[in-house]
Amino acid sequence: MANTESKRTSRRDPNKLSERQKKILVFIEQFLKRNGYPPTIREIGEAVQIASTSVVNYNLNKLVNGSYLERSPDVSRGLRLLKNLNNEPVEIEYTHEIRVIEASNVTPVPMLGKIAAGMPLMLPENHSFYPDPDEIVEVPSPLLGRYANSDNIYALRVQGDSMVDALVGDRDIIVVQRQETAENGDMVAVLLEDSNETTLKYFYREGKLIRLQPANTTMDPILVDARRVKIQGRVLAVLRQL
Amino acid sequence: MANTESKRTSRRDPNKLSERQKKILVFIEQFLKRNGYPPTIREIGEAVQIASTSVVNYNLNKLVNGSYLERSPDVSRGLRLLKNLNNEPVEIEYTHEIRVIEASNVTPVPMLGKIAAGMPLMLPENHSFYPDPDEIVEVPSPLLGRYANSDNIYALRVQGDSMVDALVGDRDIIVVQRQETAENGDMVAVLLEDSNETTLKYFYREGKLIRLQPANTTMDPILVDARRVKIQGRVLAVLRQL
DNA sequence: AGTTTAACCGAACGTATGTGCGACGAGGTG
DNA sequence: CACCTCGTCGCACATACGTTCGGTTAAACT
Questions:
Q1: What is the pLDDT of residue B128?
Q2: CA of A238: which chain B residue's CA is closest?
Q3: How confident is the model at residue A90 (pLDDT cuts 50, 70, 90)?
Q4: Nearest-CA distance B9 → chain A (Å)
């Protein structure tokens, strides 16, 4: 079968690092930063896709030869990083300087409830306080773009499969900015007054009509009278946990 | 006389550190600096004149309570210094890049590249592992569930509309945990060896066959020979910015 | 005195983890 | 082609190391 795609580098470099060795080196650095202690041989193997511990050991010793790291024999996790890939010295030092950690770039967004087909979603008017959110969802700020600090952002949990044409499934979380207007190309939550249904669609104004385009490009848009749709908010992001 | 040689500190302080605990803390810090990896319980005991490993363990847990350090269960040398004696934060700092060890509600995930239809995704293959630090996506940890601290998590940007049946669209970000096995109901990224294509589907084993079920419940599952599919990872989350 | 609790000891237990060895395919070389 | 080295695999093995549990001691409280 196609399993024999041996990725053997087969490089005959004198003392250059192989791909695997580079990966190992970077992994060790990352692991160290993440955990505060070095990884085991097996952990390295798992991360770098090496099946045999002896191979990791083999490559580790190569790295020792290149003085990228030191090892303490018979010591579990007995690794010491000397320099990283770019030959930059890597030293672990403890600073006793209080560093204010810039608040990680997440925006707390109140989870206001569920949104299901056939139910208009009632977002609170422009209140500067949140009613009583079931919970707060922390959304990475970059996902919200320039609205990250806006006041009218809410999270809703989708219930049911009524929005698959917007590529939104059951249990997904949508982050909505409350607004009653929209610009072309925006993904909006709109209430269709004829069917009294809320759907998520891309918004395009076409004269007196509004074209609502499903995110799934294989599906057809619908055209509705502008007076029969009520924009409820703009969808900023979708989060899905599987 | 030498009547007060009782080694028992007999302090009845609520949450102040005992002499022994202080010594342990200082020793860990020094050991870390000298060796680049944390000491074992026995090494601590020897240094601080404690005969029994259980006593070291006991005091270590005290230090954890005071949030001086963190421990990883069943992990040898699984210590992580949080602050030192003076309550000063202790951070592991690499000369060229600052990293704060602090548990926050986001998990940094390296963005490894793009995933498009017809291309098998090469997880931590090629490119020197994590290219640049800017390419880190911060994912809310709850979204990753119990995998939040795993080391094999990667983010990929979806290119194209080939995965609409998984409710994943163009430009979406999927967060993948690399693994080669899956359990029923998992959303997995699989390589179909017949078409050499990677798709996202729900995974169900059915004897010698594997049923790959699209997330869009209106679509039909496909059945394939278990030997013709290669699981590349489990999809943990999907992020979409609109 | 009896009881509880913090701090400690010792030893046994199990698993986490490094090491060593035999084998194998792909190149390279004489 | 025989023969080597390099990178790889799988596996057994010994030990490094965290965990647990039964005891002990002294101080504090009933």
A1: 35
A2: B240
A3: low
A4: 28
Interface test with A, best of B68, B129, B177, B227 (most A CBs within 10 A): B129
Backbone torsions φ then ψ of B189, nearest 5 degrees: -95, 115
Confirm whether the ipTM is greater than 0.85.
Answer: no
Return the DSSP state at A236.
E
CATH class of A19-81: mainly alpha
- Give A62 CA → D4 C1' in Å: 20
What per-residue confidence (pLDDT) applies to B55?
93
Q: Does the structure show a pLDDT above 60 at A120?
A: no
Please give the Cα distance from B25 to B19 (Å, whole number).
Answer: 10
Name the average pLDDT for chain B. 74
Chain B contact for A51 (CB, 8 A cutoff):
no
Domain ranges of chain A: 19-81, 106-239
Please determine, looking at this structure, whether the domain spanning A106-239 carries the CATH number 2.10.109.10: yes
Q: Using CA atoms, how far apart are residues A22 and A2, in angstroms rounded to an integer? A: 26
pLDDT attached to residue B39? 93
**Distance, CA of B43 to C1' of C23, in Å:** 39
pLDDT tens profile B77-110: 999 888 776 666 555 443 323 233 333 466 767 7
Nearest by Cα to A45 from A33, A57, A36:
A57
